Amino acid sequence: MDKAAIVGVAQIKYERRKKDQIFADMVFDVTREALDDAGLTIHDVDNVVTVSNDFFDGRTISGMAVGDACGGQDKNISTVSGDGTFGAFYGLMRVLSGYKATIVVAHYKGSEGDINITTNGMFDPVFHRHLGIDAVSSAALQANAYMTRYGIREEDIAQVSVKNHGNAKNNPFAQLPMDITVNDVMKSRKIAEPLKLLDCCPISDGAAAVIIAGEDIAAKCRKKPVWVRGVAHCCEEYFLGDRDLSNPVALREAATRAYAMAGIRNPIEDIDVAEVLEPFSYMEPLWLEGLGFCEPGAGCSLITKGITVMGGKLPVNPSGGALSANPVLVAGLARLIEAALQVRGEAGARQVKNADTALAQGFNGPCGQSHCVWIISGTK
Amino acid sequence: MSTQNRQGELMQLTFAYPMPYEWSIGLYGSRFFQEIKEKRRFIGIKCNGCGMVYVPPRRVCGPCFKELSELVPLSDTGVITAFSVVNYPFIDPNTGLQRPIPYTYGYIRLDGADNIFSHIINETDLGRIHVGMKVRAVFKEPDRMQGNIQDIKYFDIIS
Question: Which of A130, A192, A194 lies nearest to residue B92, judging by beta carbons?
Answer without folding.
Answer: A130
